Amino acid sequence: MNTSKPRIIMISSSPRSYGSSNQLLVVAAKGVIDGGGIPEFINLYEKNIKPCAGCVSDGNEYCRFPCIISDDDFNNVASKLLEADGLIISTPVYWYAPSGVLKNFIDRLTSMEHMIFHKGRSLLEGKVAGFIATGLDSGVMMAISYLAITLNSMGVHIVPWSMAYSHEEDITKDAQAVRDAYNVGLIVAKTAKALKNAEYIGYDPTVDVKELAGLVKDFVQTLERERDKRLQWLRKASSCLSCE
Fold this sequence. Notes:
Helix content: 40-55%
Number of domains: 2
Radius of gyration: 23 Å
CATH superfamily of the largest domain: Flavodoxin domain
Largest sheet: 5 strands, parallel
Strand content: 5-15%
Structural class: alpha/beta
Distance between the termini: 75 Å
């Protein structure tokens, strides 16, 4: 049994180290520690993360990890994710969405997700994620929803109560946000620890699509028969109504 402590990468994507999203990230780190994990902070604004070049659009063979864009810090940061068991992302909200530097980083994670076509699995599969978003205006849930859906599409586990958000500049004035952020860290760490001992369950890219398509065709034929029965009933019911 693997009893080692789970490593959780704490990703900051704010240009203000003292800002509200980083304040909540510190609280989440305490939750990680109390959950038996080891937090490691990375500030994307201290890194050089270039925009994605869209290599996958030119062919699956071009999109892989390490990313072919090798003259920036992405591969180094992503390698830390590869070695970790989970991640917690914090971001300020810029126009209802995550910060631009975080969006660049998320786009570049495609290189890890796309390894499913090279090694049979996304390199992010099995990891656990939580999210923090702050902003004085609306948009925090839109930003979190985007992150959760995208990371889940890359094979990452999105655990219950995995989000915290606030509209306060000073988060000590937002007791619920502080409580939520702590629990994000706690639950991500505990879930990551539990999954260390779990059987791997991942996406199967080798499934026989032709066989499944045959099942769909049989199903559709059955539906067509049911549709004919339903149309007969509708015509009869409609005819009876018109006679009244």
